[in-house]
UniProtKB/TrEMBL annotation:
<dbReference type="Pfam" id="PF18962">
    <property type="entry name" value="Por_Secre_tail"/>
</dbReference>
<keyword id="KW-0732">Signal</keyword>
<dbReference type="InterPro" id="IPR015943">
    <property type="entry name" value="WD40/YVTN_repeat-like_dom_sf"/>
</dbReference>
<feature type="signal peptide">
    <location>
        <begin position="1"/>
        <end position="20"/>
    </location>
</feature>
<dbReference type="InterPro" id="IPR011047">
    <property type="entry name" value="Quinoprotein_ADH-like_sf"/>
</dbReference>
<feature type="domain" description="Secretion system C-terminal sorting">
    <location>
        <begin position="382"/>
        <end position="452"/>
    </location>
</feature>
<protein>
    <submittedName>
        <fullName>T9SS type A sorting domain-containing protein</fullName>
    </submittedName>
</protein>
<dbReference type="InterPro" id="IPR026444">
    <property type="entry name" value="Secre_tail"/>
</dbReference>
Amino acid sequence: MKKLLLTFLAFLFFSISSSAQMLWDKIYGPPQSHAFLSRMILLSNGDYLLVGRQASPIYTTYAVRTDANGDTIWTRKYTPLGLAFYLVNDAVEDSDGNLILVGGGHTGNPNNYDGFILKLDAKGDTIWMKKTVTPQYDSYSEIIIGANNTCLVSAMVGGSNFLQKLHKDGTVIWSKSYAFSPGNIGGVNGLIKVANGYLIFIGSHYSIGRVRAVRIDENGFELFSYINKAWQIFDVAADQKNNFLVCGAGRLFKFNSQGDTLWSISPRVGNKMISIFSAKPTADGNYIALFDRNNGNDQDIGLMKVAPNGTVIKDTVLYRFRFTEYSSDIVVDANGDYVFAGWAQVTNGQNRFFLAKHRKWNQVIDIEEKKDEKELVSGTNLYPNPATTHATISNEDSLSGTFKLYDLQGKKIWQETVSNSTEKVIPLQSFSRGVYILKFYSEKGSNFTRKVVKQ
């Protein structure tokens, strides 16, 4: 009974702490219906666009535009050229403020999808709509804007995978297919604009578990490519140094513009595997990621902050709904706060879009190791690091002074004084996984700082 009470109190404290970080949290969707989100994008004026599908009583494309506070500006429903069932996969804003939605659907035969492209003005009114029709499976999965409001879209036409470049009126400029390997035509499931071209990701079958990243020019010709470990790409983002952060199923990896892998991690939260669906660079030079975690009976979402070297700085699971929720996208707004979206079963049998804003995690302590002019620590060693239950710091000469351990918000969480000691054990078992700062204040003025990583 005591253990159960302590568990409940710990969960209550965590829930209150997490809630205090939420700035707002809103849901969208018609009553007595289901709304499933496919994509959320931050628009050029600070608004947000959420697109997906509405089910019951009929399937329609469902779009919501909100202001910077998540308040609804307009909602629209579209039926793309008579399709009875469809899936909106992606959306983008062009430089004129128009909105372009892509996806695919069918009129009753699930083996014969037709792809559609829907162009809207800023008010949600239709400018034009186009459909790709062949006797086989057709669909558009991703879209990005290129030069002069051209579009690059990944498409499946006639059962084959293509990458198409479109004029702003929707006409095809060129269409090319790319193979993951000889005889293995892969689908393009990751696009990003780079200087003088694009970076695309070609997926293999999940049993192979690899993607081929390809740099192409404006005409679609390959410049170079390389293979990395991930069988599905959910999101690609460029940071301030023109490196790329890629979310691929349960893995997050980073590589430079030349294709060199800088690091790859497969993090866990609460000893459970997670799927990272979206990640973006933050103003302080780190990254913020949005993930799903399956708990067996339901699914929750959470946030994870990652350092430029791949170290997980902080993570939290957001217990916001009683039932299952699924993540989609995360962006960083003008204030540096985190805005994320997805869909959730908010009541039993009712699914809705959600859009939420979380306060940014400030990093008030520099996690780099610093030394002052009086420091005499050439013989100082910290091990193991990363650590799980404890770390030990040793020094060739005896130390007298005080060790203090801080979290990244500057809160002191442990301290102990030593006298004429060459070794000190730092207890970590009661702390959450992440990065901590160990400081030693010497009686003789020989101070030092060390970064401690708790796994």
